[in-house]
Amino acid sequence: MTAAKSTGHQRSDLKRIARRAMLERGLEPEFDAGALAELDRIHGPADSRGEGIRDLRDRLWCSIDNDDSRDLDQLSVAEPLAGGGVTIFVAIADVDALVPKDGALDRHAAHNTTSVYTAGGIFPMLPERLSTDLTSLNEDEDRRAIVVEMGVKADGTIGASSMYRAVVRNHAKLAYNAVGAWLEDRGPIPRAVSGVPGLDAQLRMQDRAAQALRARRQERGALSLETLEARPVFADDTLTDLRVETTNRAKQLIEDFMVAANGVTASFLEERGVASLRRVLRAPERWPRIVELAREHGGTLPGAPDARALEEFLARQRAADPQRFPDLSLSIVKLMGRGEYAVDGPGAGASEHFGLAVQDYTHSTAPNRRFPDLVTQRVLKAALAARATPYGVAELTALARHCSQQENAAQKVERQLRKSAAALLLARRVGEEFEAIVTGASSKGTWARILRPPVEGRVVRGEARLDVGDRVRVKLLSTDVERGFIDFARV
User: Sign of the CA dihedral 269, 147, 209, 215?
Assistant: First the structure.
């Protein structure tokens, strides 16, 4: 019996395991004394007054996020244009206004580079008093923001765009699942929507623009992948389930607006000759295996990486077998490899993101929870004010490498805690057999994910000749909650 299972305090045990895993991966789970002292000197949100700050509080801004999210980084609102187009406004929290470069809080954020979301709890990049309050775009609060304004034509192309500083006010804090069900005619209008006059029509307008943006990107080869995300469910301190979260129109709306806003930000900085961080995903690491996997599903892909051909194959598979499409998506994601940060300097050319079918692309829309976004915000604010950039190319290059490393470390911690939580649920099912799909195969080992519950483990027996995407039947051999180990044997 594992330690976490025997104590009866599963949530707190998972948090302890998460702290240890973070330290082992070079991440800091706690804020040091200097950061806490700096936090104590912050007595309220940033002053909303200032030269060049527009007052946009009267617009019908709203946020859409997870049901339990409190670190709200962005708001959106739309205005109709002639010819069926829409102007989309995305407001991004001005975190830099309270977290100056090279301060104690900034040093902690620069070390971890991201908030870490685990089954044992959230380890925020910035203290919760900032990320969920003073720098969060909370409902019915005036907050400083950077606004991305972009014209979206009826065909989904982006026309004129601009960026500026503003003060905004969130008129409704909305949740993905409720808004998504309503947009898809699967549920009633959320009370938070019906309670704000005009917000229902506003959201329908945003949804139409988002769907046009998505369709345009998919025509250019953006991949419509759909993977299963399992979130832990607790009853008091006891883990009771891993609930699968699926995509919906509300999630797509935010994703499409963020992709567009990040692209506009990157182009804005490129046009001004300012070096900045970019998010890139180069050609898939294992394209030949993707080609082979497509052939096994009755499809044909070219020998060289081709995003448009891959998206056409995925669209056919989604239509033919929607229930198993997330499994295929997971295999493609694994075979494509990880994204990373890179520096794009003046005249260096655009950096491609294969999976999104975009060229100029940065991370800028989540400065409360991702350090590269905070760096980009500082570079952007300097460009808007015609000041010298706060980061030189050498510093940005070092940051790109460090952020990629720490993001990888954080993802490993999150993955380990998902497995620790899964080990808790499966502890009484040792010896049972499950249908599974192979999710990883290399010299380091072979991994497979069972379907119910959606849990990944290592295949330690009979793994020879298995490859990503293969379907197998496995037997659960053992679980180890402390280390997040789940071991299978191929049947």
Answer: positive
Terminal Cα distance for the chain, rounded: 25
CA atoms within 13 A on the CB side of 4: 30
Residue 300 in 3-state DSSP?
coil
CB neighbour list of residue 209: distance below 8 Å, 6 or more residues apart = 78, 86, 88, 152
In whole angstroms, how far apart are CA 129 and each of 32, 95, 124, 404?
15, 12, 10, 27
pLDDT at residue 4 in the model: 41
Please say whether the beta carbons of 134 and 44 come within 8 A: yes
- Residue 378: Cβ within 10 Å count: 19
- The three-class DSSP label of residue 441 is strand
Cis check: omega of the bond before 80, within 30 degrees of 0: no
Q: Are 70 and 134 in contact (CB under 8 A)?
A: no
Distances (CA, A) of 275 to 71, 101, 356, 376: 28, 17, 22, 10
For the chain, the average pLDDT equals 91
CB 3, CB 228: distance < 8 Å: no
Pairing mode, strands 74-80 and 173-175: unpaired
8 Å CB contact between 330 and 439: yes
CB 466 within 8 A of CB 472: yes
Which residue, 101, 75, 100, is CA-closest to 89? 75
Q: Is the pLDDT of residue 1 over 50?
A: no
336 neighbors 353 (Cβ within 8 angstroms): no
Dihedral sign (CA 198, 203, 205, 206) = positive
Structure tokens at 410: 């954080």
Q: What is the pTM of this model?
A: 0.90
Band the pLDDT of 243: cuts 50, 70, 90.
confident
- For the record, the structure tokens of 296 come out as 């096994």
Task: Out of 349-363, 382-396, 402-416, 467-481, pick the least confident.
Answer: 349-363
pLDDT at 2 over 50: no
The two three-digit tokens of residue 58, written as one number: 């009267």
Q: Which residue has better confidence, 283 or 113? A: 113
Q: Tokens for 204, please give them.
A: 């329908």
Among 259, 270, 56, residue whose Cα is nearest residue 147: 56
Query: Rounded to whole angstroms, how far apart are CA atoms 267 and 247?
Result: 28
Kindly tell me if the per-residue pLDDT of 228 is higher than 80: no
Residue type, 11: R
In 3D, which of 457, 454, 469 has the Cα closest to residue 245? 454
In whole angstroms, what separates CA 173 from the centre of its chain?
Answer: 19
Q: What domains does the chain contain, in order, with CATH numbers?
A: 3-281+338-420 (no CATH), 430-491 (2.40.50.140)
Q: 467 with 441: CB under 8 angstroms?
A: yes
If DSSP codes are grouped into helix, strand and coil, which group holds residue 184? coil
